[in-house]
Amino acid sequence: MDDQPTAQHMPNPHPSASANHLLEVLRFFLHLGLTAFGGPAAHIAIMQNELVKRRKWLSEQQFLDLIGITNLIPGPNSTEMAIHIGLLRAGWAGFWVGGIAFVLPAFLIVLGLAWAYVEYGTLPQVSWLLYGIKPVVIAILLQALWQLGRKAMKDRWLAAVGLGVLAGYFLGVNEIALLFGGGAAYWLIKNLRRAQSLGGFALLPSLAHLPTAAVTAFSYGTLFWSFFKIGSVMYGSGYVLLAFLQSEFVTRLGWLTQPQLLDAVAIGQFTPGPFFTTATFIGYVLGGVKGAVLATLGLFLPSFIFVALSNRVFRRLQKYPAVRVILDGVNAAALGLMAAVAWQLGAASLVDWVTVAVLLVSGLLLLRYKINSTWLILGGALVGLLSSFF
Fold first, then answer.
1. From the CB of residue 301, how many other CB atoms can be counted at a distance below 10 Å?
2. CB half-sphere exposure, 93, CA atoms < 13 A
3. What is the pLDDT of residues 3-22, one digit of tens each?
4. Tens of pLDDT, residues 101-111
5. Residue 358 CB-density burial (10 A; 0-12 exposed, 13-18 middle, 19+ buried)
6. DSSP string covering 59-124, please?
């Protein structure tokens, strides 16, 4: 294959950062951080619906490329998407505003819940909220899969990659292995004669498993470093984060009990915004407001670093056809993983005729009437509230 540069697919990351664009970024991601339930896949689906389809901030292909890039770097995918989109929309000011605005509402909500937890020793019961919201989230996710899939599945081999990743996920194959494997497999299919030149995809260092000295006494420095380390190496879903938190704070450091960790995870699940604000809760329980700030900063700071580095690197590399082919494969693999998440959410959330009805009505309103996803989420919450009385 001729590796000469071709036209770029990504937008210029240094647009004129007008005050209007920066204000748009601030408003959208503050709003998203305050209303987005359902985890990274659902957050990304809402971004696709609002910023690609409705507001035209970027094209389907540009959005797919960002999904591919964020899936190749550690950290919370939806937060990294917010940082990337802020950068593309409003320059380096948007880079910071997009990420911080998305995280800030969840940080403040979780901080308040952590205070109540420490003060009173219990969590508020909001299962009714998730009961009505989760079917809406599934509808949004399915719509995004349909629209992105039509763009990403450019040939039958990409569709095969996506289906293969979906099957591999349910067979227990590691998520990052599936992502890199999807890109490598598509490259091999397109370049069978050059297959011997491909290597290194399985070499994924993990700093989290390096030996560390046993620490028993609490310190703010160790708290920050522990979360920074996790944010620097963690791929995958919130369940993967749970494994890291268990290993670090329950087993190695002994700072948290198992019930405290489960309460922290519950807080992350029923609050809007990034699930990684579980770090805020743990930080507050261990070290008050200062601990909450340091834990949150430690977990999210690597995302800003990785986005800044990956944006520059990928803009250069994607000029070359070979890299474009690999990224297409990664995009197909990422959609396969999103489909797996949608299936799991559906299996856990569609528990009766009410939740099925919410899913169907939400899907109809999204596809036929282009209703803003925020109104649908609020409607789902209202259904959940009403159902709690019957």
1. 17
2. 13
3. 443 444 444 444 445 788 99
4. 999 999 999 99
5. buried
6. -HHHHHHHHHHHHHSSS-HHHHHHHHHHHHHHHHHHHHHHHHHHHHHHHHHHHHHHHHHHHHS---
